[in-house]
Amino acid sequence: MSETADELKQRLKKLNAQATQAKMDLHDLSEELPTNWENILSVAQRCHDTHAALMEARRASAAA
């Protein structure tokens, strides 16, 4: 099923907020190092996955 323009806009807004939060979490973690160094991989993976989803949604939006 294809998303409507409004649904895609809402999804982009949500993904953008999630990506911004993930970026800030990674930034905060980096500033606290070496404290919580054990979380580097999980926080970085979440940041990567969130930004990948955002970029894919932006490509879909541009193609629509």
How would you portray this structure in words?
It is a single chain. The protein is 81% helix and 0% strand. With 64 residues, the protein is mostly helical. Helix 1 (5-32) packs antiparallel against helix 2.
Beta strand count:
0
Can you tell me the overall shape?
elongated
Mean pLDDT: 94
Fraction of residues in helix: over 70%
Order of helices and strands: HH
CA-atom Rg in angstroms: 15 Å
Can you summarize the main beta sheet? Answer: none
Q: How far apart lie the N and C ends?
A: 14 Å
Count of individual helical segments: 2
**Poorly predicted tracts of residues:** none
User: How large is the share of residues in beta strands?
Assistant: under 5%
Class derived from helix and strand content: mainly alpha
Task: Supply the key terms.
single chain; 64 residues; mainly alpha
List strands and helices in order, with pairings:
Layout: H1 5-32, H2 40-63
Helix pairs in contact: 1-2
Quick recap:
The chain has 64 residues and is mainly α.
